[in-house]
Amino acid sequence: MEYTLGVVIPVPQPHRDALRAWRQEFGGAATEPIAPHITLVSGSYLNTWEKAAAQVRQVASGMKPFTIELGAARTFRPASDVVYLPLLSGADQCWALHRQLLGDALRHESGFAYHPHLTIAQNVPAQQLDAAQAALAQVQLAFEADQVQLFDTRGGDWNLSEDIALG
Fold first, then answer.
1. Cis omega (within 30 of 0) for bond into 116
2. What is the pTM of this model?
């Protein structure tokens, strides 16, 4: 049997609340239940949940905490109707985690190549995307990435399964 999982870097306070407010303002109600994060892997796992979780723990233990700096809003348009904050620093570490997580029991399933970012708005009218990009043109914030979160969909919804410290 195959299930879906997600491995993300959560954004800590105080930035979490500001990013959540921007996501609600520009991304609409669909973003409300989802805490701001940077996705490392979103896909399926084969074998067992225990094997997949053990792999995430092993990869996380090999990465020291690092600084993520987010910059001015950009867009993936026309390829995808998304406005996001790019990683000015920390992208190399996210790439390393992404690649290491994909070994063995985990897969990343997306119609797009992996690109570390923080989504602000997606699948909303163009004027909302334009407004988000204009309003967040001067954003610059930084935080320490010291953990990853492991989510699963075994119950049908995305559920936080485990907080896993880096290093």
1. no
2. 0.92
